[in-house]
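Lysophospholipase L1
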Amino acid sequence: MKRIALLVVSILLFSFLAPLACAEKLDDSVLLSYYDDCVLFGDSRMEALKRYCSAVRQTDESFLRKTTIICTSSIGLYAASRNYLSGDFHYYFHGNDRTIYEIAKELSPKKAFVMLGLNDEIATKIDKGLSWAEKVITTMKEHSPDTVVYFFSETPVTPKFEKKIDFPGYQDKLDEYNALLKELCVSTGGGYIDIAEALKDENNYLLEEYSSDKICHISDEGLVIWLDRMKEYAQEQYDAGLWNPFDDAGESLPEGGNEP
């Protein structure tokens, strides 16, 4: 009787683990195709990613070739969230100053990824930051209805950053902002990609080797981690059945499977 029971348990355990063992690990090039026909908006951190991608393309022309990266140093989430231009920082695209909504309307991307907030010192104004993020999501739907907005988590900072802005505990507040940003993205039908945790040291700060200035900006080593997280996110979406790169359309839904 015990042998029969053991056999039943073994069969059930195998049936549970078999799908996990058979999960298909996609090639990097396939995973990065998740970002085809998409646009990435950001600040100086995104400028660093754009430079890195350009360097990689010297030996691999296909690397994120179908991804548009729009970036301006020092731009903040507040400035980018507005649907009009002012004297503040803005994006320059195809010879003109443009809002992110105008750019999205012209490009009609499947997805728009946003990494902004560093220049707003976003963790010191969490409620405002969330309202700006929500404005990006809702206003984008008005201008480009088929575009799903994703936010990257805000990247961590070093203790030197906290001293620089005289705000002890900034990193802890930044973690709070990221958690609430994720909730907002999922609840409004957007997506959220966490890259912050992978960039941290044992003390919850930005690992110094991942920072180009040992304060807040991302080094090449950190950019590799960022890109790894993008690939991991695509794999997670594939594993969850939310994205199939082998379909003709390659359609996908954001985290949680919410309809945009």
